[in-house]
Amino acid sequence: MTQKKTILVWDPLVRLFHWSLVVCVTSACVTGEGFLRLHVVTGCVVIGLILFRLLWGVMGPHFALFRSFVSPPAEVLVYLQSVVIGHPTRYIGHNPAGGLMVVALLAVTVATSLLGLVLYGVGEFSGPFASWGLISGVQELSLLKKIHGMLANGLLLLVALHVMGVFLTGWQHRENLIKSMFTGSKTI
Amino acid sequence: MHQKQKLLGIGLFILCVGGGISLGVSASDKERSGGKQHRDVAPVQEKQYSADCGSCHFAYQPGLLPARSWEKLLAGLGEHFGENAEVSQEVQNALKTYLTRNAADRVDDGRSKKIAASIAPDETPVRITETRYFVKKHREIPRRFWEKNPKIGSLIRCEACHTKAEEGSFNEHEVQIPGIGRWED
Amino acid sequence: MKKSVMLCGLSLMGLLLTEGHAATVDDLLLQYQREGATGFSAAAGQELLNRTGQGGPEAEGKNCASCHTTHPAKPGQHAKTGKVIEPLAPVANPERLQDAAKVEKWFLRNCKGTLGRICTPQEKGDFLTFLLSVR
């Protein structure tokens, strides 16, 4: 009988990053325009968190590195096929679909946050883009607000897909992926 | 993960998150002052101003316009939006002191600072309703809500919808549009 | 003894108060007379209420009644801002005509704003007389 080994996949910092992001995104969702200052501060923390992840993705341990899980589209398709036919290939770190989701989430999250900062300047004449408020009118403001909202909704959709993907993969491989995101360990 | 890498990671994390927090906190302003007096701009404390400038219209708080706008208005009281609002030189001086000292570009109130930031340095608006901040904040209100509404008629009548305007509070949640109700968006 | 002193004091106070009120207006009327006005007429004052003048293009069709209404005992409303203006007649608004500087200030502003010129002492006296006559 093969010995079951436990290895550390998610280092403490990548886990800390992940759950901090969860808290911040949740906070940003519920604060919105009603608690604008908190919303803005949260958004700025998100930008900081993503900056960290980008740096950690090139400086951190193996499973945190982008080159270890970001796959070409062909590989993503191959993996998805294996999922569909019920024999999903097992990856210790992120599988190719998961890797794609990471990239998508990071991109949409940072886009939402950055646009939010721009919106803050244009609509509230505050923050690093305050001067943009002087060169923009109500049309631009309304448009920016709409896009920021759409991006935020897109982010929530991705989060929903991400959660579904985690449950599906966990079920298919008979492993508790959420627990792994807390302890960092997986059994192989 | 080696010790060095761990330390680097922790340092990076603290820097990035710390940076985010400081950016966020410095970029945003407390719009409303804390404590019991929840207000966006300082309420009018000066009796002279209330008497001389608040008899015909709402006593617009000095924190709603920059100092140079107040000076311009005071210099042209003989032709004040179609009315004569002359005052004696003595009163004019007193008003100028009060208004400029508490103007939007001189105080710390969050909303005042935003209003001031919405006016270019080479502009001297005399109408609050024409400042970019005001225009953007009121952009979503359909004209029909106020234009032919006998209880409003014009956006210059803050007190018609902003129920706590006199206290210096213009919060969206305190708005009650006569004949329509609360502003929901 | 104490009661009668108090009574005296009270009636003196009462006299002074009403005297004070009347004194301000009387002072003004005297001043206008010194400036050349004669024989004030409430009817002439009432006419002033409705008179339009050359206040400039903004004052087209604007007169005292536009904001103060034709009934000085009733509250008025600013034509543009809608702000409520308390009645002019002292019978309805005891605070009126108590402050000479205030009376003069509003004469200056509003005569210029409606008639395009300052009111003459005669007109001012007539108008105050009219206000006092309103029941």
Features:
heterotrimer; A: 188 residues; mainly alpha; 6 helices; 2 strands; elongated; C: mainly alpha; two-stranded antiparallel sheet; 3% strand
> How would you state the average pLDDT of chain A, rounded?
94
Strand order of the largest sheet of chain C: 1-2
Unreliable stretches of chain A (pLDDT < 50, length at least 5) are none
Structural class of chain A: mainly alpha
Query: What's the assembly state of these chains?
Result: heterotrimer
- What's the tally of helices of chain C? 5
Residues in β-strands, percent of chain C: under 5%
Helix content of chain A: 55-70%
Structural class of chain C: mainly alpha
SSE order and pairing:
The complex is a heterotrimer of chains A (188), B (185) and C (135).
Chain A (H helix, E strand, L loop, with lengths): L5 E3 L3 H20 L4 H24 L13 H12 L11 H29 L13 H36 L3 H7 L1 E3 L1
Antiparallel strand pairs in A: 1-2
Helix pairs in contact in A: 1-2, 2-4, 4-5
Chain B lengths: L2 H25 L19 H7 L13 H9 L13 H13 L8 H8 L14 H6 L5 H4 L11 H4 L14 E2 L3 E2 L3
Antiparallel strand pairs in B: 1-2
Helix pairs in contact in B: 3-4
Chain C lengths: L1 H33 L7 H9 L13 H5 L7 E2 L6 E2 L14 H16 L5 H13 L2
Antiparallel strand pairs in C: 1-2
Helix pairs in contact in C: 1-5, 2-5
Concise structural overview:
The complex is a heterotrimer of chains A (188), B (185) and C (135). Chain B has 185 residues and is mainly alpha-helical. Chain B is built from eight helices and two strands.
How would you describe the overall organization of this protein?
The complex is a heterotrimer of chains A (188), B (185) and C (135). Chain A starts with 5 loop residues before the first strand and ends with a strand. Chain A has a two-stranded antiparallel sheet. In chain A, helix 1 (12-31) runs antiparallel to helix 2 (36-59), helix 2 packs antiparallel against helix 4 (96-124) and helix 4 (96-124) runs antiparallel to helix 5. Chain A is built from six helices and two strands, in the order βααααααβ. In chain A, 68% of the residues lie in helices and 3% in strands. By secondary structure, chain A is mostly helical. Chain A is elongated and about 65 Å long. Chain A has helices at residues 12-31, 36-59, 73-84, 96-124, 138-173, 177-183, and strands at residues 6-8, 185-187. Helix content of chain B is 41%, strand content 2%. In chain B, strand 1 (176-177) and strand 2 (181-182) form a beta hairpin. The longest helix of chain B is centred in the N-terminal third of the chain and has 25 residues, at 3-27. Helix content of chain C is 56%, strand content 3%. Chain C contains five helices and two strands, in the order αααββαα. Chain C has a two-stranded antiparallel ribbon with strand order 1-2. In chain C, strand 1 and strand 2 form a beta hairpin. In chain C, helix 1 packs antiparallel against helix 5 and helix 2 (42-50) crosses helix 5. Classes of the chains: A mainly alpha (188), B mainly alpha (185), C mainly alpha (135). Chains in contact: A-B, B-C. The A-B interface holds A 11-13, 16-17, 20, 36-37, 40-49, 51-52, 55-56, 59-61, 117, 120, 123-128, 130, 133-134, 138, 141-142 and B 1, 5-6, 8-10, 12-13, 16-21, 23-25, 27-31, 113-115, 117-118, 120, 132-133, 135-136, 139.
